Amino acid sequence: MKGGEFVRISSRTANLGTETAFEVLAEVNRLVREGNDIISFCIGQPDFDTPRHIKDAAIKAINEGKTGYTDSAGLYSVRQSVARFISKSRGVDCKPEHVVIANGAKAFIAFAILSTTDYGVGDEVIYPNPGYPIYESQAVANGAVPVPLPLTEKKGFSFELDELKKRITPRTRLLIINTPHNPTGGILSRQDLEGIAALAAKHNFWVYADEIYWQLSYDRKFESIASLPGMYERTIISDGASKAYAMTGWRMGFMANPVLAPHMARWMTNIEACPNHMAQYALQEALDGPQDETKKMIASFRERRDLIVKLLNDIKGVRCLTPGGAFYVFPNVTEALYNLGLESSEQLRKLLLKNGVAVLSDIHFGRKNPEETQQYLRLSYATSKENIVEGLRRMKKAIEGGL
User: Fold this and answer.
1) What is the 3-state secondary structure (H, E, C) of 235-269?
2) Is there a contact between 146 and 121 (Cβ–Cβ < 8 Å)?
């Protein structure tokens, strides 16, 4: 190109949001390469290895030459396994025809928005805020209007039903819920789910139920909104193997809905062709095989949760609720910021990184609610107890040492 001129990129691409956890992780990895000692609480990735029997299933598939295309929705036998898994865990009558498998559950966020809204006509998607940042970015990228629904600490990082009611309009097409929740670890109660279900029926909108952390529910039995009367048909259940089976890099996600599954399969045809062939056998083994390793992981995460909450609450100026699920804590650091003379949790994040602790700030999980005056950090406790103890020691020293 002459004069440094380039063919333009689309404004949609230029303005596309991202998952900033990965940007912070890249910064942390760079610091580590340069010889810095960093304990990272950034990324939501189990520190366990994928169980041996799951890896063996994929190796066996490769050795047997199962390396070609599959149906866009996934292998029928694997969808049978997913359907049994969904039926048992959610208490619904899920059939293989209701299931689509993708290369990670994240794809279904976009597919759900594409399947329930039209581009540029004002269709609205309500999503939790703070929340997984891809909810908002995919709504914008696919021409819908994102409508943030504030989650509050006083509600245990759930939301007031009246706040949801105020955001429902004739243009509401999709409500996204995430329970257990990233970044707070909050869990919606049965009463919350019943209230949502009543509103969905009254106003006729879809519900995208991001349930990727459902097995990591520590203090009470998980309940899915899809199990409520009349909700399975209007709920897009999204799940996958990444969290409970330590399979993040295998990229095995799945959805279930009796109405939208064939449409999701067409999106798969258009965008991904099909899910990874050999990894589907690993997914099948994860769901059908022994669950002992998953139970051990969950027990370990529960112990780590209790440890990190205790250590956070021992730091002057930090207040942390005990999360009900997932593997994140979302401590309130407002008082600590005041004591340190800092203005934002992002400034505290940078201070902690200089002291060898990598965390994320609340701005990595959506726009601040205008009325929100409190400041938060997110820490993932998907790391060893030793790292938790040492990381929180450094954090305590950095915060209290500045007093």
Assistant:
1) EEEEEECCCCCCCHHHCCEEEECCCCHHHHHHHHH
2) no
Q: 270-273, long-range: CB within 8 Å, 24+ apart, which pairs?
A: 271/107, 272/72, 272/102, 272/103, 272/107, 273/69, 273/72
State pTM to two decimals. Answer: 0.94
Cα distance between residue 56 and residue 324, in whole Å: 33
Pairing of the two strands 328-329 and 253-256: unpaired
Contact 183, 360 (CB under 8 A): yes
CB 45: neighbour CB atoms within 10 A? 17
Q: What is the DSSP letter of 47?
A: S
Q: Characterize 167-193 residue by residue with b for buried, 16 or more Cβ atoms within 10 angstroms of its Cβ, and e for exposed.
A: bbeeebbbbbbbbbbbbbbbbbbeebb
Confidence band, pLDDT 50/70/90 cuts, at residue 2: low
Nearest one of 401, 350, 397, 355 to 377, comparing CA atoms: 350
Q: Identify the sign of the CA torsion 201, 202, 206, 212.
A: negative
Give helix 277-288 / helix 52-63 axis angle, nearest 10°: 140
Locate 205 and state its tokens: 């909108």
Q: Give me the domains of the chain, ranges plus CATH numbers.
A: 2-49+293-400 (3.90.1150.10), 53-288 (3.40.640.10)
AA letter at 37:
D
Could you tell me if 213 and 325 are in contact, meaning their C-beta atoms sit under 8 angstroms apart? yes
Lowest mean pLDDT among 5-9, 82-86, 94-98, 104-108: 5-9
Alpha carbon distance 258, 52 (integer Å): 33
User: Is the bond leading into 183 cis (omega within 30 degrees of zero)?
Assistant: yes
Q: Which residues 6+ apart lie within 8 Å of 336 measured at CB?
A: 315, 316, 317, 318, 348, 399
Which tokens belong to 229?
């009367």
How confident is the model over 357-369, as pLDDT tens digits? Answer: 999 999 889 877 7
Across the strands, what pairs with 161?
Answer: none
Structure-token pair, residue 57 = 């299933």
* Mean pLDDT, residues 143-156 taken together: 94
| Residue of 179, 173, 174, 136 whose CA lies nearest to 157 | 179
Cα 289 → chain centroid? 25
Q: What angle do CA 347, 183, 279 make, to 5 degrees?
A: 125
